[in-house]
Specification:
Elements (H helix, E strand, L loop, with lengths): L6 H8 L28 H16 L3 H12 L5 H10 L2 H7 L6 H9 L3 E3 L2 E2 L12 E4 L7 H16 L11 E4 L4 E4 L14 H8 L2
Antiparallel strand pairs: 1-2, 1-3, 3-5, 4-5
């Protein structure tokens, strides 16, 4: 069952901003993380918390997250890297990393409502896995939406004040901000993964 309670409470429970938005910035919240009151955490408890943190950051269910581990463990290479690569290549994650949505939840909503096309075809599955060479674009009918008109205006101002004009630090994505277009240049590598995710503890959790 998907959690529907206060998201700030989840961030305090895990001790990190899970959702990217300034709204959930714990540095602005002077209350102690919820986990602090429980004292020292056991090895298993720490593994569980790291798993919960990553699962919530990507906005996937327990079953989905476990399936990513299962698929990753069946591929050649490092299981943790394989797992994070698949999570990063979710269409909703790509939309969020490209800064076309404020939070992962909003990105999932945009994809679910079929705001974008992949290689010219409408896709409304947040977990859709992108591949190298894929081109993601905003659907024509959505370009008149105030949400995206406002986003383009913000990008135009950003580009004027920044010499490189990059609106994302995600190197494996090529983002055309004023056209609201994303091209998958390469597969995400280890250096592209979120450093707050302790994938080693997560693999330990599932490999027991």
């Amino acid at each position: 069952m998907r959690y529907t309670g206060p998201k700030t409470k989840l961030c305090r429970r895990e001790g990190v901003n899970l959702f990217g938005s300034e709204k959930y910035d714990l540095s602005q919240n002077h209350r102690k993380p919820l986990g602090a009151k429980f004292g020292k955490t056991s090895g298993f408890g720490l593994q569980l918390r790291k798993k919960q943190t990553a699962k919530r950051m990507y906005g996937v269910s327990e079953k989905q997250f476990a399936n990513y581990y299962k698929k990753a463990s069946q591929l050649s290479g490092v299981t943790g890297d394989n797992m994070l690569s698949m999570l990063e290549r979710r269409l909703d994650t790509v939309i969020f990393r490209s800064n076309f949505a404020r939070t992962p939840m909003q990105a999932r909503q945009f994809v679910g409502h079929a705001h974008f096309v992949v290689n010219g075809k409408k896709v409304n599955i947040p977990s859709y896995q992108v591949s190298v060479g894929d081109v993601i674009e905003l659907r024509e009918k959505m370009k008149e939406s105030p949400i995206y008109k406002g986003l383009v205006a913000e990008y135009e101002e950003f580009i004027k004040s920044n010499s490189n004009g990059n609106v994302t630090s995600t190197k494996w994505l090529e983002v055309s901000p004023t056209k609201l277009k994303i091209t998958i240049k390469a597969l995400p590598q280890k250096e592209d993964f979120d450093k707050t995710i302790d994938i080693g503890k997560i693999i330990e959790f599932y490999s027991k």
